[in-house]
Design goal:
With 1028 residues, the protein is mainly beta. Among the domains are: 1-329 and 348-387, no CATH class; 450-488, no CATH class. Helix content is 11%, strand content 43%. The strands form 4 sheets. The chain has a 46-stranded mixed β-sheet that branches. The chain is globular and about 110 Å long. The protein starts with 10 loop residues before the first helix and ends with a strand.
């Protein structure tokens, strides 16, 4: 994620210098809580060789349903190991991603509206960036007097930059923001629609309004609803316990902003299933930083302004929430946490500024009674109330019975940061040793990490051993250089697995050979340096600790041929000092200006959170005494994927951090993959072409504005306003084509080339055409149509219209397959609404009956109306589906229209599992027999039973009652798996599972019968998914 630290926010400088630049202007620091910050990093920063950052993921458990499975994983990200970054509740670098929207505030919060600042946020002021928006900050049509008032008002009371909201849920990832028309725009590779709560789009937080200063309490966005392309709805926020807040503790006032909205509910389309999430407001935490800054403007003798602060303390008070429960069908996942004894800030750190103590005492004294944690934990003053927690365990219950328990072990020392040392996963038989899996973790030299706020970090915040507590504008850049030997301090080195074996990770400092020119984003500057961290080598050891395989990573260009120039490109070079710059103020006269700061005046990461992007990386795989090579090339600044410069700038010469129109989300995509054998000869290559459907219409307008007081008290025209107009793009980026070449032994002479081309719907981002040309020159094409491809406006009640309204977009109606321009096969699918809840389900499937390719007759399957389109003689119905109309939407019958064979399904276990598949019998034939056999008065009684009569499902009762049909019956351990299957002959096969829900035995005839198959599970070193 892009963590928006304005580390030099200085209230003193704001008072004395007015607004110097965006770094100083923004009092709206919005650091996330440690949990959300780690979630954001995991979600937003590209996890691939493009950044040299692997994600290491360990599956803990999962919640299962018919239409959705929710995996619960714990993931590690190496970019989070920084001395001044607090850990989340599972230790440094680790996070458990569930689903969150978090905000990057630009200017003021979009919904800013309180008694003092009425409607100043972008949500209310966006109309100012409509006509002549890019020159709005220049105020060209105003008189000199009116222009002075206009610029001062613009500085304080108009936010013309939309905030960026990042999301990550169920595989959906991206960001969204408002545009000048009030539309929510989504920048993502996936289709997602965004809505605010229609009943209450804006509202006051009961928590922050009641316990802060009411005149400062702003309205907030209460609830976001995201809908994906199959109609699933994801609700974030809504309840106070699922929204996190913060306020600047040294600002002189208690003014909260909402930072993040956690997932509260998933409504699964096509069913009545819901996933519910519960949270608890946790104890207060804080995010502190030290800063020093100085600024000077000189107009003439006696007419200047200046301000300097030696080391000061700033920060925010955070109001975190913690996940307590996830409920899905009969499953309940509970999370238990307790106070962490980890290394903390010193008490004296809060006493640098009297505003800090006053605000903390005032707010905490009033609000602590509404936080459950403090009801059982005594705290004497504000310092003891600021508390971090650790996740102790996760427990999965099914129908009230404990199924799994995951325990987390930490160092938990008050002299060290919190590090996760072990994970123990216990199966259903919690107290049996053989039912426990344990992972253990080792980190690099954690004892060397300094205490918090000691100013011993490099440009990116990694440990470098150099103190910059005594600095000046000329030496701080060198004091904050990367230390290649220390940058990996505290990072994960090793994972040991439950049954032996381990994986060892080696990291190194990142290297770049080019830097983006801060004054021209299209221009690259040659310069070699080090920054950030990247993976160097991964080694996997087997159970006897012999090397199984290793992977080494080389980030140079042409590495296979010995290239020694890094392919890395640095996003921005840090700048700490502006020396004696000069500019022309609004009076027409010149003035001089200088500024120095302890933190960079420039953003050193791009809008995707990338510090260095690597255009080319080679993976060297060593296994079985042989080496192979894979080179990956990525879209980057040096191969056509640069940012756009600002649309218009006004007096922006002194701005070190001026915004631009970012195209970061086009970068980091695989451009080419080349596979080499052990002799370094190419055996295969894949070339991808990415197409950006660029359009300025697909953008949101933004105006960054700054106001510098040169010497306003001498002359009201002695000021320097700056504005930068830029765009937030959201046009789609698609994979347009791929060329795959398999090289033969004679090189290109006997190679096999396959070319693929793709076309998409720009709005829904769904594939509509795929064309493949094989090595023989034959062209195969697939065309897909969806509900939105048919104009059903004249039929608003038609099922396709209902599907579009429900965002059920990714439901193909037709698929046609062509060879060399002629149709070789085609299918069509209709849908129906199932009573009583009108759930939309597949109905009839049609096929095209051809024995040889035919011309495209522009025929249409009857997916709208047979009266409108008719039915081509070559089209016939293949199968029809009917459903139980009891609110579950479960399949009742599948009728083969070609053979007239009907297959009927009976369900039970609370409607979750099919207990009988009956071929060659209709539901009307089966229903009464089933009621008699299972002694129920209705089918619904059988379907809703938690456990049906399993002996009847195993003794052949249904098989004997329907001798003309083929009957197979099943019993289950709900949410684990099938435990028996009785075939049409009456022979029963039994399935046995271990305490973790894994199949371990298959037996015939009875539970103690002959073993047909046995499964052994060993967590070896290749078990952990390592994604690069």
């Amino acid at each position: 994620m892009k963590i928006v630290y304005w580390p030099i926010v200085l209230f003193f400088c704001l008072l004395s210098l007015e607004i110097v630049n965006a770094q100083i202007k923004d009092e709206w620091i919005s650091p996330q809580t440690p949990n959300t910050a780690s979630l954001g990093t995991y979600g937003a920063i590209p996890v691939s060789l493009y950044t040299g950052t692997p994600t290491i993921s360990i599956p803990l458990t999962e919640l299962k349903g018919e239409n959705l499975t929710i995996p619960i994983n714990i993931c590690y990200h190496s970019g989070n190991i920084k001395p001044n970054q607090r850990s989340g509740w599972v230790g440094n670098g680790w996070t458990i991603p569930i689903g969150t929207i978090y905000r990057e505030v630009r200017g003021l919060p979009d919904e800013m509206y309180n008694d003092l600042l009425k409607g100043t946020g972008y949500y209310f002021r966006r109309n100012f960036v409509n006509s002549d928006w890019d020159k709005f900050g220049e105020a060209p049509n105003l008189s000199r007097k009116n222009r002075i008032d206009f610029h001062r008002e613009l500085a304080y009371y108009k936010d013309l930059e939309p905030d960026i909201f990042h999301f990550n849920i169920n595989g959906l990832q991206g960001c969204f923001f408002l545009d000048q028309n009030g539309k929510w725009c989504v920048q993502s590779d996936y289709f997602v629609s965004i809505q605010l709560d229609s009943n209450e789009p804006l509202g006051y937080s009961v928590f922050t309004y009641s316990f802060s200063q009411p005149s400062y309490a702003s309205k907030i966005f209460k609830k976001f609803i995201l809908t994906d392309n199959i109609g699933n709805k994801y609700t974030f926020g809504g309840e106070e316990s699922s929204i996190e807040y913060s306020f600047v503790i040294n600002s002189g006032s208690i003014m909260f902003t909402a930072n993040s909205w956690h997932i509260k509910e998933i409504q699964i389309n096509g069913s009545e299933e819901k996933v519910l999430f519960e949270y608890e407001r946790g104890p207060f935490t804080s995010s502190l930083y030290k800063y020093s800054c100085g600024n000077n403007t000189y107009k003439n003798e006696g007419c200047n302004s200046s301000g300097y602060k030696g080391w000061e303390m700033g920060g925010t008070l955070l109001l975190p929430v913690y996940l307590k429960k996830i409920k899905y069908n009969a499953q309940e996942l509970s999370f238990a946490f307790s106070k962490s004894d980890e290394l903390n800030y010193n008490r004296n750190d809060y006493y640098w500024d009297t505003n800090i103590i006053g605000n903390l005492n005032e707010f905490i004294g009033r609000a602590r009674h509404n936080i459950p944690f403090y009801r059982s934990q005594y705290a004497s003053d504000f310092y003891d109330h600021i508390t971090w927690v650790k996740l102790d365990n996760i427990e999965l219950r099914v129908n009230g019975t404990v199924r799994n328990r995951i325990n987390f072990g930490y160092n938990n020392s008050n002299t060290e940061r919190l590090f996760l040392e072990s994970i123990s996963i216990k199966g259903e038989m919690l107290y049996q040793d053989q039912d426990i899996q344990k992972f253990s973790f080792k980190y690099r030299n954690t004892h060397l990490l300094p205490k918090y706020l000691e100013c011993i970090t490099d440009h990116m915040g990694y440990y470098n051993g150099n103190s910059f507590s005594s600095f000046n504008g000329g030496n701080i850049f060198y004091l904050r250089q990367t230390n290649e030997n220390l940058i990996t301090t505290g990072i994960l080195e090793e994972i040991k697995y439950p049954t032996g074996g381990k994986t060892v990770f080696e990291y190194e400092a990142g290297q770049y050979s080019k830097i983006i020119d801060g004054n021209d984003r299209k221009h690259l500057i040659d310069e070699i340096g080090y920054a950030g961290i990247r993976i160097k080598k991964i080694t996997s050891y087997s159970e006897d600790y012999s090397v199984a395989w290793s992977k080494e990573y080389n980030y140079n260009k042409n590495a296979v041929l010995g290239g020694d120039v890094s392919s890395g490109i640095l996003t921005n070079k840090p700048i700490y000092y502006i020396g004696n710059g000069s500019a022309i103020d609004m009076s027409g006269g010149t003035f001089s200006f200088s500024s120095t700061n302890s933190s960079s005046l420039t953003n050193i990461i791009d809008d995707n959170g990338v510090l260095i992007g690597y255009s080319e990386v080679t993976e060297v795989v060593s296994a079985n005494n042989s080496k192979t090579y894979i080179t990956k090339k990525f879209t980057n600044h040096d191969n056509g994927y640069t940012d756009d410069n600002p649309t218009y700038t006004f007096k922006a010469d002194l701005l070190m951090n001026k915004k631009f129109s970012s195209r970061a989300y086009e970068r980091g995509r695989e451009k080419e993959i080349i596979y080499y054998n052990s002799d370094k000869k190419i055996v295969k290559s894949i070339v991808n072409h990415w197409g950006a459907k660029f359009s300025q219409e697909k953008s949101s307008r933004a105006l960054m504005y700054n106001y510098l007081d040169v010497a306003y008290w001498c002359n009201h025209e002695y000021y320097y306003p700056s504005s930068v107009a830029y765009l937030n793009y959201y046009y789609p980026v698609f994979l347009d084509s791929t060329i795959e070449t398999q090289f033969g032994t004679n090189g290109s002479n006997d190679s096999i080339v396959t070319k693929s081309k793709y076309k998409y719907h720009e709005t829904t981002k769904l594939l509509k055409e795929k064309e493949i040309t094989d090595s023989n020159g034959d062209i195969y094409m697939t065309k897909i149509t969806y509900p939105f491809d048919y104009l059903t406006l004249n039929f608003p009640t038609h099922i396709n219209s209902q599907m579009i309204l429900s965002n059920m977009l990714n439901y193909p109606l037709e698929e046609k397959m062509f060879k060399n321009g002629k149709i070789i096969s085609a299918t069509g699918q209709t849908y129906t609404q199932v009573s009583p809840n009108f759930i939309i389900k597949p109905a009839d499937k049609y096929i095209l009956n051809v024995t040889s390719p035919i011309d495209d007759e522009n025929f249409v399957f009857p997916v709208i109306s047979t009266e409108l389109y008719g039915i081509n003689a070559k089209i016939s119905k293949n199968i029809s589906l009917t459903y139980h109309e009891n609110g579950t939407g479960k399949i009742k019958e599948i009728i083969n229209a070609q053979t007239s064979v009907c297959t009927t399904y009976l369900w039970s276990y609370n409607h979750q599992h099919p207990i009988a598949e009956i071929k060659n019998a209709s539901y009307s034939e089966v229903e009464n027999l089933a009621k008699q056999i299972f002694s129920v008065t209705s089918y619904d009684d059988l379907s809703s039973q938690t456990t049906p009569n399993e002996s009847k499902l195993r003794d052949g009762s249904l098989q004997r009652a329907l001798p003309h049909a083929q009957v197979t019956t099943y019993t289950y351990k709900p949410l684990v798996g099938m435990i028996s299957k009785t075939d049409p002959r009456g022979v029963t096969t039994y399935y046995k599972y271990d305490g973790f829900g894994r199949l371990i035995e298959i037996r015939e005839n009875n539970e103690n019968g002959r073993i047909i198959q046995r499964f052994d599970y060993h967590y070896k070193s290749n078990f952990i998914p390592i994604i690069l």
